[in-house]
């Protein structure tokens, strides 16, 4: 089978993984409306391209929170990479280095954060869930900084886990040889079995701190001086609150359609958030990005960079590190071609007048 786009890699990944593992990665909450609309929303946005521009040379590079990256395509945080391939998060991090981009490492990693950061020269940002045990949360933040992570990505849209019906049907649980390595020191590394639900949902219900609120941002800053990015924003009022707290980044995300079903697709939420942020923080977006044209649309609408989660996981499942290399190369090449056909030679030329 010729693997020429992200969808081909997803088909091949489904064949390579167990059904439970594929369903865990691929599924969304409830009727999966937001899951599907995240990408469909991009299809409804036409590009109004320019012609007779010398595009023989193009520069895809940009700078995100002080990091020079080869393209505005980052790797979003996703859990349990060793479900896809034994290389797990280390393979993903090494691929990020070769692609010249940033990897965001999940709290729910099947590889310890120290092992990941030691394996790559790429910037690694640590994605954080806040636990009821604030001591454990503080320890995670301190470990992330000591390990060399260069930012914290705080996920704020999961006070409880959305109902992912495929995981419920499958009674999702990690294989016995896998655990959440970052939580070993806190006796939370093995997800609890649940006879009527997924083990991850049981973990979230018992461990995640559903009292987390805006007032806790200052507490987080008191225990870590790493730049803070807030992930899970879809409302402009929340974006405004984040910028008033002087966070480093606002991350437009609906958790890949895995939390609140029928939530607004992220690209539809983006313009109002761009207006609210008004350049006071880096602006990232994920959700439904499968093509290079999706990337150029998000940048044209005001994002500084996009993040992809499922796409590199499909590459990981198919061929480990080399599979992630291939997926990131496809997205880069598609984005490069889209820039050329839109008449753009650099990122700063991708502006709102390209949107029809």
Question: What report would you give on this structure?
Answer:
By secondary structure, the protein is α/β, with parallel strands linked by helices. Helix content is 42%, strand content 11%. The strands form two sheets. An eight-stranded parallel beta sheet has the order 3-10-9-8-7-6-5-4. Strands 1-2 form a two-stranded antiparallel ribbon. The longest helix is centred in the C-terminal third of the chain and has 33 residues, at 310-342. It is globular. The mean pLDDT is 95.
Distance between the termini: 36 Å
The number of helical runs is 13
Mean pLDDT: 95
Beta-strand proportion: 5-15%
Shape: globular
**What is the H-and-E element order?**
HHHEEEHEHEHEHHHEHEHEHEH
Could you give the count of β-strands? 10
Instruction: Give the C-alpha Rg.
Output: 19 Å
Largest sheet: 8 strands, parallel
**Residue share in helix:** 40-55%
* Low-pLDDT windows of residues: none
Question: What is the topology, as strand order, of the major beta sheet?
Answer: 3-10-9-8-7-6-5-4
SSE class: alpha/beta
